[in-house]
Write a sequence for this structure.
């Protein structure tokens, strides 16, 4: 297939530079019902419907779906997709190495770390000198379970907006973990149940507990075991983990004074009733909103987020040096307004299907 750019080159010859000048970013990446599409490369980024060629930023289920013909993602993201969907989650797979540029069609593509969960990446797409970064989900706070975010200079930066309101300012996660451990010491007869999403948050909370000096066994819900095992296989030491079953605890009181980590959904069902006088904790950026914590019956809210807060979002936009910002999945309006007030053109992308699995 002859690409439109080569036709233009032949038609305009010396006017080629004029064509480049007139080039618009949406010719390189544009929203489609399936997801963000790259016409020069013929691929989608994080498509929500099955496509021929998908580039996937990270393993959360709203970004990484099964059923694509070909998937390009980091080795860790491919492994996580196989764990969650089975080995046959895609027709073919290819592992992207961070920092290594690959050519796809007429576009060049480079994965860079996003600091969100193990294997998470931003995707730099280049074509005719134009650079657009699709950052997926990201954060800037240190996280001992994944490679830190790296600002990538670009013309257009596509940013998430999960916590894009000035009210969202995440404290240092280690402060929240210290509060959890204070509560454990204060109530030795009670079981602390920590709700944390299965991919990323749970392993980060466990690792932070270890960094804070907590070396007792941590009990985990069965839904976390495969991913915790995978993190350990990648060299992330989570210390001693035991299944949170009555057998392993001995009796209901066997968990008293202990820490149990499970997916937030598990705490609403019968599973949670096996623990002695539980203290319900929830590790999430949403815990900044006290009303949300109360509605969920959370006694000890822990503001631990794998998404950038307001300050991280605005700092990152500046760090990329981008001259245009596209905002997606979350509270787009406030961030678009902030960009415009600072003289940076910005627009919401209105991509659908991203539900924030990880926070
Ligand atoms: Zn995510």
């Amino acid at each position: 297939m002859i690409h439109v750019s080569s036709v233009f080159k032949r038609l305009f010859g010396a006017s080629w530079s004029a064509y480049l000048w007139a080039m618009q970013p949406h010719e390189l990446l544009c929203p489609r019902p399936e997801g963000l599409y790259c016409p020069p490369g013929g691929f989608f980024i994080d498509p929500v419907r099955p496509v021929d060629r998908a580039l996937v930023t990270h393993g959360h289920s709203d970004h990484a779906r099964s059923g694509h013909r070909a998937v390009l993602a980091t080795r860790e993201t491919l492994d996580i997709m196989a764990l969650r969907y089975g080995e046959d989650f895609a027709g073919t797979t290819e592992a992207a190495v961070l920092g290594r540029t690959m050519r796809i069609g007429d576009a060049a593509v480079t994965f860079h770390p996003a600091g969100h969960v193990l294997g998470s990446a931003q995707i730099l797409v280049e074509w005719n000198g134009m650079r657009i970064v699709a950052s997926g989900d990201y954060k800037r706070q240190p996280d001992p379970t994944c490679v830190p975010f790296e600002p990538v200079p670009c013309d257009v930066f596509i940013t998430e907006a999960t916590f894009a309101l000035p009210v969202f300012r995440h404290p240092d996660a280690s402060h929240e973990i210290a509060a959890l451990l204070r509560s454990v010491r204060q109530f030795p007869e009670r079981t602390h149940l920590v709700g944390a999403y299965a991919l990323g948050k749970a392993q980060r909370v466990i690792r932070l507990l270890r960094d804070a000096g907590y070396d007792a066994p941590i009990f985990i819900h069965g839904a976390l075991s495969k991913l915790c095992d995978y993190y350990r296989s990648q060299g992330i030491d989570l210390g001693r983990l035991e299944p949170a079953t009555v057998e392993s605890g001995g009796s209901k009181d066997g968990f008293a004074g202990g820490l149990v980590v499970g997916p937030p959904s598990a705490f609403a069902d019968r599973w949670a009733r096996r623990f002695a006088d539980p203290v319900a904790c929830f590790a999430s950026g949403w815990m900044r909103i006290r009303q949300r914590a109360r509605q969920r019956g959370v006694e000890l809210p822990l503001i631990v987020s794998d998404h950038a807060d307001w300050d991280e979002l605005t700092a990152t936009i500046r760090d990329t040096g981008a001259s245009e910002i596209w905002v997606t999945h979350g509270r787009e309006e406030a961030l678009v307004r902030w960009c415009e007030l600072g003289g940076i053109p910005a627009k919401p992308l209105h991509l659908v299907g991203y539900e924030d699995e990880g926070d």
